[in-house]
């Protein structure tokens, strides 16, 4: 990975976040009475199966304690169950923002490659935080998901230059 990949990630971050939020909202039950791990884990595993390159999925409780193993590639990492993740960006950002979020790239504990974690808070019917669903994806796969097409690049440049011209016109007035 190079600095250009991280710059590309920052440009496509909104698109990647929208994609992961869509996956969570489509698959994970939210704001239902009596939510349990047994209701959520099979749906997390479905998301993992749909994303061929997904590094792993796991579930945290409302305090940031991992309540499931990490379901990685072809193995289950049982040792992760019970670990406190409250100091991780994927936990505290999802709690603070109250919505699906993605982290900045960081070295994965599983693969040692740059990875991004998408996380989504799960609430009960009374809007009490119950769980945080987490999904780890390699940065190169996130870049493929958020790939900026030529229209994105063109309109981004057009907007920048239009804004610059507008500023100069205002200054000259």
Write structural notes for this entry:
The chain has 173 residues and is an alpha+beta fold. Helix content is 45%, strand content 21%. It is built from 5 helices and 7 strands. Strands 1, 2, 3, 4, 5, 6 and 7 form a 7-stranded antiparallel beta sheet that branches. A hairpin with an 8-residue loop joins strand 1 (56-61) and strand 2 (70-72). Helix 1 crosses helix 4. The longest helix is centred in the N-terminal third of the chain and has 25 residues, at 3-27. The radius of gyration is 19 Å and the shape is globular. The protein starts with a helix and ends with a helix. The mean pLDDT is 91.
Average pLDDT level: 91
Give a quick account of the main beta sheet: strands, pairing sense, barrel closure.
Answer: 7 strands, antiparallel
What is the radius of gyration computed over CA atoms, rounded to a whole number of angstroms?
19 Å
**H/E series, N to C?**
HHEEEHEEEEHH
Approximately what portion of the residues adopt beta-strand conformation? 15-25%
How many strands in all?
7
Count of helix runs: 5
Gap between N and C termini, in Å?
A: 47 Å
Name the helicity range: 40-55%
Given the C-alpha coordinates, what overall shape results? globular
Look at the helices and sheets and give the structural class: alpha+beta
Unreliable stretches (pLDDT < 50, length at least 5) are none
